[in-house]
Amino acid sequence: MKKLLFVIAALWLTACSQTPDAIKPPIKGGGSPLDPGVDVLMASFAKGVKKEWGDDNYLEASRHHYVKYIDGYRTRAHIDFNKGKIYIGTVDNKKTQASLRHAIIETLLMSGDPSEVDLYTDSKVAVSQKPFLLGQVVDQDGQLIEWEWRAERFADYLLANKLSHQQQGDIKVHYIVIDMVNDHLLQRERQYAPLITAAAKRYGIAEDLIYAIIKTESSFNPYAVSRSGAYGLMQVMPNTAGADVFRLVKNRSGVPSRAYLFNPANNIDTGVAYFQILKLRYLKGVTHPTNLQYSMISAYNGGAGGVLTTFNNDRVRAVDDINRLKPEQLYWALTTRHPKDEARRYLQKVLQFKQEFNQGRL
Q: pLDDT tier at 36 (50, 70, 90 boundaries)?
């Protein structure tokens, strides 16, 4: 084991000339294996969508993308939370204007409660007295869109001035692109600030870390889903992190439901509680605060086992090995020697976003 530590230290000294803050996060690739239940659901959903849109135009909701179909799957709303763009499109050639108008209004006024929106059917979207996108989009006059009459007027303006068409094979797509405001991410952050502050105090986890994790996991998209079966802002897996929190923190049996994790308050509470479990249980014994934080971040994505087996299959020895390393050496090891590629990139991303948050850029 001393040889392994020597190799890590030597390689780090010769190959790692950048500090964690200097390394820019690469584009994330790959994904977790599909959960069988989610796979079956998505296959059925995809069949209905592709019947109307074709294979090349198929889109589905994901961590950083809200995608909702209505009108027999002929019309959809797509919010790209990374780019700050809203795409409203339809393949309905008979009621093009009416379909787009309806979808624009529904999207602008939709609720921030994911339990009120079924992403995997063509059901209507319930409007809210406090729209989720309030503050993230303004109309042609630069005004916030809170009321139905203003959403209707903006929809009419867009249809008269911004309607585009694109022929893709045998399918003609009619669409409108709406730009979100420059600080749309900040506007979403503010919606969840009280929940983050409360969870940080409740579980003893730093707020800047929570913000960075949510940015990485979902770009503050409460509708975030993944093919691996994770839900919500902090992308909590019901059968792993969710089950641990229920058992070890909440003293409850079973696992949290999809509806439970789609509730922003529950999701943030569960995600932050899991960080506490990592800190006090699975990574207990890691003494240096920075080493502990790096290990927690990596473990949130790739599991505590992934962190430990980077050094040794024996937990006690692995913790000892971590404690012998300086933070910059541990960072190098976790971003170059972790068994999962995704976990290597994850630590880089979170630390980058954490730095941006503390500099007021997140």
A: low
Q: Where are the domains of the chain?
A: 2-33+184-358, 43-179
The CA distance from 78 to 264, in Å, is 20
How much is the average pLDDT of 117-145? Answer: 94
Q: Domain 2-33+184-358 has what CATH class?
A: mainly alpha
* Structure-token pair, residue 167: 């022929």
Query: In whole angstroms, what separates CA 66 from the centre of its chain?
Result: 11
Ramachandran angles phi, psi of 68, nearest 5°: -135, 130
Sign of CA dihedral 41, 42, 43, 47: positive
108-122 tens-digit pLDDT: 999 999 988 899 999
User: Which residue reads 């170059």 in tokens?
Assistant: 336
Least confident of 6-15, 22-31, 288-297: 22-31
Is the pTM higher than 0.85? The answer reads: yes
CA–CA separation, 1 and 10 (whole Å) = 14
Distances (CA, A) of 294 to 63, 168, 172, 347, 361: 23, 46, 49, 7, 21
Active site residues: 217
